[in-house]
Write a sequence for this structure.
């Protein structure tokens, strides 16, 4: 019995190791879309001092294009343009990318806040067609950071377009002071490692 265990133990260990590598793994990353976007405040608009502009500063604005990501026709090359942790970038050559899923998009104010904005909607378009929408609504205002979560993650591998464009629409009241913000997508890379 001991001979059988000794003989087949290395084979069993190798099979378990191979299965572990081929099952698949995932890694969360951030993909910056744009930085330093300015939503102008009413205080910065010349000629408005002393005027009642309350009827002009409320409403709906957009859709306004904020940025795009391109190179999706070759996802491995696209990922090389994204700042990845060294633990992933070092193994890009030996892994098989199964998918890249956008699950969340964040509007992070670096100056000011979104408290006067009640509704924010981000639409992602590929070749002019809407492929995903990320809405947020809060009657009390949206705060300094707005995290838009997808009902179903958006697969970058399943996109026919090489570029995806990001459009924002806002509803509420213009802020008094400028709001400066960054737009970042939070994505998950699904990959597997094949030894053969």
């Amino acid at each position: 019995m001991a001979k059988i265990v000794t003989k087949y133990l290395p084979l069993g260990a190798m099979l378990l190791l191979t299965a572990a590598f081929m099952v698949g793994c995932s890694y969360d990353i951030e993909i910056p879309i744009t930085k330093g976007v300015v939503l102008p405040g009413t205080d910065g608009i010349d000629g408005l001092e002393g005027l009642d502009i309350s009827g002009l500063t409320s409403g709906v604005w957009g859709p306004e294009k904020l940025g795009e990501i391109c190179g999706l026709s070759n996802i491995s090359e696209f990922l090389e343009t994204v700042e990845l942790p060294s633990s992933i970038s070092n193994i890009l050559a030996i892994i098989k990318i199964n998918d890249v899923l956008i699950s969340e998009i964040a509007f992070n104010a670096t100056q000011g806040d979104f408290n006067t904005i009640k509704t924010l909607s981000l639409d992602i378009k590929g070749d002019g067609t809407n492929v995903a929408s990320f809405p947020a609504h809060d009657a009390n205002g949206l705060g300094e950071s707005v995290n838009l979560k997808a009902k179903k993650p958006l697969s970058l591998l399943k996109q026919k377009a090489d570029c995806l464009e990001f459009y924002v629409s806002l509803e509420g009241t213009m802020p008094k002071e400028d709001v400066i913000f960054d737009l970042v997508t939070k994505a998950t890379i699904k990959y597997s490692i094949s030894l053969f």
Summary: The chain has three helices and eight strands.
